[in-house]
TrEMBL record:
Protein name, entry field: ATP5S synthase
Stored InterPro entries: LRR_dom_sf (IPR032675)
Amino acid sequence: RRFWGWLNAVFNKVDHERIQAVGPDRAASEWLLRCGAHVRYQGYEKWQQDYNGLPTGPLGKYKIEAINATESCIMYRGFDYLDGLEHVTEIQLQKCIYIQDECLQRLSETKNLQKSLLQLKIISCGNVTDKGILALHKLTNLEYLYLSDLPGVRQKETTVRVLQQALPSLQLELDLE
């Protein structure tokens, strides 16, 4: 177990020189795919899931539009890779054992995501609590939020009420029984 924790820490270590060299979207793609997530680029329907098959082209050609982190090992430590992403409209975090409240706080404080993120799904992430969900209020352009199977969310009614007051146009879908 200690080995996997160490390996995940290595996968999630941010390489700022790499971000400078290849641009934020390429560097984030590399990080996400290394951790087992998938990305979809703006103007493309196909999900990129093969690290070795990452598309090449001029710097900035491929912009991440969607992230599917189902069963990936992404963790807080790597979230700096999200800072430069300007076109991400949807993120799915499902069965991510390393996602916790601090990750959702960091996500909601990322300026570019505050502007671009429209849809967010958080499913079966056992370390997420009410505190993490409430932090999402900073995602002011968020249109759709789906929450399911989050046993750490214990004050469901209060959390939902506060979030909907902060984001009145948010369509919130819950499956938290």
